[in-house]
Amino acid sequence: MAKITLMAKLRIFVLPVFAEWVGRLWFATVRTEIHHKEIYERYILDGKNRRNIVFGIWHRNMIFFSYFLRGVRNKLTLVSGSKDGDIAAGVAPRFGYKPIRGSSFRGGTRALITLISEMRKSEKKYFCFTAIDGSREPARKVETGMIFLAQKTDALILPMTISGTKLITFPRIWDKMIIPMPFSRILVDFAHPIEVPSIISKDEREQLRLKVEVVLNELTDKVDSICGYI
Questions:
Q1: For the packed helices 108-120 and 144-152, what is the interaxial angle rounded to 10 degrees?
Q2: pTM to 2 decimal places
C-alpha cells in the first residue's frame, strides 16, 4: 500500500477543516436578503415537495451558495476528481453534501451516471448542487449534461443567483468568482423552476438548455443591477 505523503495528508485532512471554519466564521457575518422567498420555501424548505431539484447555479456563485444551503438535506455535489478537488471533497460533507468525484473534463460521464443513479435509487428527494455551467470556461453557458441529468431524474431545474453590495471578485479566474465581504449584505434570488420532460429530442433538449441559460442570465443581471455590481 502506497504511503500518503505529508502534502496529501494536509490536502485531505487538514485544509478541509481549516476551510470549513474560515467559511463558517466569514459568512456568519453576512446579512442575507431573500427575494421570491415563496419559491425558496416551496421547493427547498417544504418537505412536501417530492421532486428532485437541480440547482441552477453559475460557477461564480458556488462558494457562498455552499454555505447558504448547508442546512438542506440530501444534497449531492459534483467535485473534481483531480488532486485540487481533494480539498473540496473534504469540505463538502462538513456542509452536508455528498461528493461525487468527476467533472466535465475528468471522469465527467462516469460522474454524471453516478449522479443519476444516486438520485433515482430511492424515494428520497435529492438536491443536485453542481455548477450548471460546468467547471471550465465559457462562463454562464449551461452545459447540456445538466439538462440530461434533470431529464433522467424527473428533476426540476431551479434557477438561483446571488449578488451583493460589497463583493470580492476574482477577475483572473474564468468564472469571475465572487464572495461577499465580511459584514456586507448579500441578495439571493430565485426564478420559477423549469420543467424538463422525460422524453425529448436532441433539438428540444438544446431549446431547454438555451431557455435555462436565458432565464438564469436575466436573473443574474437583474440582481447584479439591484446591488450595483457591474
A1: 30
A2: 0.90
- How does pLDDT run across 129-162, given as a tens digit for each residue? 999 998 888 999 999 999 999 999 999 999 999 9
Q: Are 167 and 185 in contact (CB under 8 A)?
A: no
Long-range contacts of 34-39 (CB under 8 A, 24+ apart): 34/188, 34/189, 35/187, 35/188, 35/189, 35/190, 35/223, 36/189, 36/190, 36/191, 39/158, 39/190, 39/191, 39/192, 39/193
Q: Of 72, 70, 79, 68, which is closest to residue 125 (Cα–Cα)?
A: 72
Tell me the pLDDT tens digit for each residue of 25-62. 999 999 999 999 999 999 999 877 789 999 999 999 99
> At 190, phi and psi to the nearest 5?
-130, 150
CB 107 within 8 A of CB 115: no
Measured distance CA(61)–CA(163) in Å, rounded? 8
Kindly list the structural domains of the chain, giving each domain's residue range(s) and its CATH number in brackets, ordered by start.
Answer: 31-227 (3.40.1130.10)
Closest among 137, 161, 149 to 216, alpha carbons compared: 161
